[in-house]
Amino acid sequence: xxxxxxxxxxxxxxxxxxxxxxxxxxxxxxxxxxxxxxxxxxxxxxxxxxxxxxxxxxxxxxxxxxxxxxxxxxxxxxxxxxxxxxxxxxxxxxxxxxxxxxxxxxxxxxxxxxxxxxxxxxxxxxxxxxxxxxxxxxxxxxxxxxxxxxxxxxxxxxxxxxxxxxxxxxxxxxxxxxxxxxxxxxxxxxxxxxxxxxxxxxxxxxxxxxxxxxxxxxxxxxxxxxxxxxxxxxxxxxxxxxxxxxxxxxxxxxxxxxxxxxxxxxxxxxxxxxxxxxxxxxxxxxxxxxxxxxxxxxxxxxxxxxxxxxxxxxxxxxxxxxxxxxxxxxxxxxxxxxxxxxxxxxxxxxxxxxxxxxxxxxxxxxxxxxxxxxxxxxxxxxxx
Amino acid sequence: xxxxxxxxxxxxxxxxxxxxxxxxxxxxxxxxxxxxxxxxxxxxxxxxxxxxxxxxxxxxxxxxxxxxxxxxxxxxxxxxxxxxxxxxxxxxxxxxx
Lengths: 384, 97
Description:
Chain A is α+β, with helices and mostly antiparallel strands. Chain A has helices spanning about 15-25, 25-45, 65-75, 85-90, 120-135, 145-150, 165-175, 230-240, 255-265; strands at about 100, 180, 210-220, 245-250, 275, 290-300, 310-315, 325-330, 345-360. In chain A, strands 1, 2, 3, 4, 5, 6, 7, 8 and 9 form a 9-stranded mixed sheet that branches. A 6-stranded antiparallel sheet of chain B has the order 1-2-3-4-5-6, with helices on one face. Chain B is mostly beta strands.
């Protein structure tokens, strides 16, 4: 047997060459080849989508580049500023400590409920704004969720607030809008519990008599990726000790992981700690995977046993028998670099940071009789 | 996906004139716009001239928001599936079917 080397052209005898030339020079043979080509082209096309094999045609998949871009957008956000004084103070607590921003926040647990829509990001962002309002202006007030729902993308279409968003979407909205209104304004209380494809009420129908002017709203990423667990924990604590609420976003890759989380939320007490991590290393299931945003309001790592160290999260899923305050706890010790099998991180710790100018309080048209009017608001001089 | 089968069965039973194909003739597509959004994700399925969009808000109840559309809006069915139960919100048929 003769071996043909890779750099050598295949050998054909003169007789074989002559035969091939004859075949390809024959017009009839060319016609047959054309027919064969047309036959293959037509019958391999996905024309019959009702057939049982309809799903064999290539489905549209998000590309690796698109996913990488989304991850990059998160990571390219400005970094939250670490306070050096607080850092030194925290380092001096050898046996841990506890901290909570809940005293800065006024909320009614059963009304802090997004219902059947996907606007958790509005609740988490608004929580950051409420804490900042108290810290900066000394005002305790519930701020309207409905106002953003009704205004964001005109409260309708595929991208209305109930169909999801990001910390950056929230910050950009208020940075541009320049004021945020109180829950107590007429029609500003939450009405979207069961909205399906748009806000329950138009923004025109919401009174804007009571609210707060903002100079700017920024968002920033707390450095928790590509650093040690200790550094990540220290950075998060530092932001909380600056009296800033944290927009915590997490992703779970499939139904199995979500079921575990739902069961934890529904059937365990507020004192139990979510120890299951966040789908680390799992394949992302596009039909089942999803993300949720909650407000991180504090921590406790004063217990000698690290298994009892946790972050305090305020959810927007109302209350249940075991959770009268709408809170849950997340273990402080998990893999902060956890990511799905594509390398996209599954947890993000972000800040939403407004700079308030003062109260916008015309003190009219606020009816004590409207539903949910029970804000213990401190009256401050109106600036216009 | 179970919810797709539930929806297809519901529409076929309640609106047979719509001519929706069987669920196994409807194929899954990723909706890249909604991927990794916080609070909501959406899958789109296509087949037989129909587009069925199934949105999943991240809530403790198993809720799916559904819009089934034939031929760019000639027939539109909108509804919700909560814990396996179908709630029809609207149905509009402007086609010859």
